[in-house]
Protein: Kappa-carrageenase like protein
Amino acid sequence: MKKINLNGKWIIGISLLIISGYAYLIQASDNEQVIEETSAKMHFEINNTKHSKEKLKSKASHAKDLEKEKPTYKAILDKALLIKDKELRIKTISNHLLNWAKDAPYECVHWLDEQYETPEYMLYVSQVIHFLITDDLSLAGSIILNFEILHSDQSIVDDYLSSQVAVSPYDGIEWLNNLNNEKIKQEAEFRLLQSWANLDPTQLLNYLEVHTEIAGNKRHIIQHQLAQTLTKNNSQQVQDEFYSYPPSFQPNLAYSVISQWPEHELSDAREWIFTLEGEQSKYFAIKSYIDYTGSSSANLNELIEQIHNPTLRAYLLERLQ
Structure:
């Protein structure tokens, strides 16, 4: 009985050993399959990645080739200059110039700078500068200063300043100080001041009080325009605040007030003149009354007698004859 038990245990042990071995073989086989699958997957991914990179590289190379093949604005414009039909030539060149001005304004203007003998040259310059002024005023100012052919052209300088004065007159004055051409500078400054007088007369009046170097006939014309604008905006306010304005400006203001006085209220105008203080202001007010009404001496003799300067008084009396 004991021997049988030993044999049974031996058989069981052998069986367990066989089962364990079989299980090990199955597991090893599964692991080998996993490794093979993983290896295959990795190989596929590597190949796929390599293929993708090669595809991207091919696309990039193709794009680069296309970029090389794409003609430059310069080449396009040089070709467009050869177009014989004037209308088509102008249209083609204008369109390409405006596109170039958007992408690379300095390069565009530099090309224009070299085309001074080109037909319709000033037309193209005007179009590009007008676009730049509208698109980027500060950039336009810098470009104009950088090219002599631009800042030596009065119309281009005036075109720029007419836009700049609406944004900042002081920046316009500062920009003008960079010009070397004194003639263009003086003319442009005068036009800037005229525009400023219409846009913000009070601000300009304060500027003139500080900058006494603006003198002579230029100052007189600007002050006259200032007075006209102020009176036109609010004549009654000007009358009420007349003596708050600088004494040197009051004569121009008096002339402007009377020039815009309603015709049906001329008796009030004469009364206002009568109360005016300052001989120069009174003189200009009477002169304005004569200029705009042509009145007879019967209405003005009493007022003219208030002018003590014999030369001024004689001039007014002569105007009435």
Notes: The chain is about 80% helix and 0% strand. Residues 2-69 form the longest helix (68 residues). The mean pLDDT is 85. Residues 1-70 form one domain.
